[in-house]
């Protein structure tokens, strides 16, 4: 039997790209369903779970900016992409009987609730999974920053970043196969070395609020549950 979870309340950030599965674009329902199942296991073990899903499988504002377009409009499109992913994840959770609510930073009351710290707090305390959509609600940010912000607001014990690499490396492992992986590193070192696994604003916010960041591969089945219980492969970014 797995060791008891070491956390009371966590925020899981899932990279949008991870939802692609084998597809070039959009959402692979099998991936979403698997992640929903793992979130359900965490909830069953007594952990309160908040969820942020990126939008990289659908749209990133930088795509428009790099082509000479309006970054703000592109970022608005990116934020809407995160709402689409949140709706997909909400559906997958509900299909499995896991009660969840979507709180968007961008008001769209006919589709989901607008973010309120107090209402999200009540939902988490009742054992609901809360999905934070729309990032920070502002352009020039990313969902990593949105996740760090919500983790601080909700008093999360840790922010789990489920991505397509199994931790933090000395350089991007996709471009530098000889990069060295860290088991543990401080927020300050990540910033000083300019490691790009998360954006600097998110790492700084986590550092200032003493929130550990746990980077692991969401593509590895069951990794979230294992890492939550102190097993599996991950890099812990934390105070010394
Ligand atoms: N030093 C590093 N260590 C580990 N990964 C790194 C590092 N530098 C860059 N990366 C890259 O960072 C990426 C992690 O970001 P990710 O794909 O999760 O993007 P995101 O913006 O958080 O999500 P989305 O897919 O929704 O845009 C990995 O694909 C990895 O290749
Ligand atoms: O606070 C935010 C969060 C996100 N965006 C835009 O959305 C896309 C998708 O988010 P990822 O973090 O890249 O998955 C992002 O590229 C931005 O364009 C935003 O503007 N503000």
UniProtKB/TrEMBL annotation:
UniProt catalytic activity: UMP + ATP = UDP + ADP
Pathway: Pyrimidine metabolism; CTP biosynthesis via de novo pathway; UDP from UMP (UMPK route): step 1/1
Binding positions (UMP): 55, 75, 136-143
Primary site of residence: cytoplasm
GO molecular-function term, one example from the UniProt record: ATP binding
Any one GO biological process: 'de novo' CTP biosynthetic process
EC number: 2.7.4.22
Family classification: Belongs to the UMP kinase family.
Protein name: Uridylate kinase
Species assigned in the record: Kaistia soli DSM 19436
């Amino acid at each position: 039997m797995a060791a008891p979870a070491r956390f009371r309340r966590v925020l899981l950030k899932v990279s949008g790209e991870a939802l692609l599965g084998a597809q070039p674009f959009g959402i692979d329902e099998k991936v979403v369903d698997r992640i929903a199942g793992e979130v359900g296991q965490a909830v069953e073990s007594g952990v309160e779970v908040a969820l942020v899903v990126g939008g990289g499988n659908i749209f990133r504002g930088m795509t428009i900016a790099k082509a000479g377009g309006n970054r703000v409009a592109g970022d608005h499109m990116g934020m809407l992409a995160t709402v689409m992913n949140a709706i997909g994840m909400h559906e997958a959770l509900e299909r499995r009987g896991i009660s969840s609510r979507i709180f968007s930073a961008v008001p769209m009351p006919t589709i989901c609730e607008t973010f309120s710290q107090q209402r999200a707090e009540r939902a988490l305390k009742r054992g609901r999974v809360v999905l934070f959509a729309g990032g920070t609600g502002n352009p020039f940010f990313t969902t990593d920053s949105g996740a760090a912000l919500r983790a601080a607001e909700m008093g999360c014990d840790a922010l789990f970043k489920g991505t397509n690499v199994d931790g933090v490396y000395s350089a991007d492992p996709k471009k530098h196969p000889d990069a060295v992986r860290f088991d543990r590193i401080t927020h300050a070192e990540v910033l000083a070395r300019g490691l790009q696994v998360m954006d600097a604003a998110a790492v700084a916010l986590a550092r200032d609020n003493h929130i550990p960041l746990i980077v692991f591969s969401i593509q590895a089945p069951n990794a979230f549950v294992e890492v939550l219980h102190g097993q599996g492969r991950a890099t812990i970014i934390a105070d010394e």
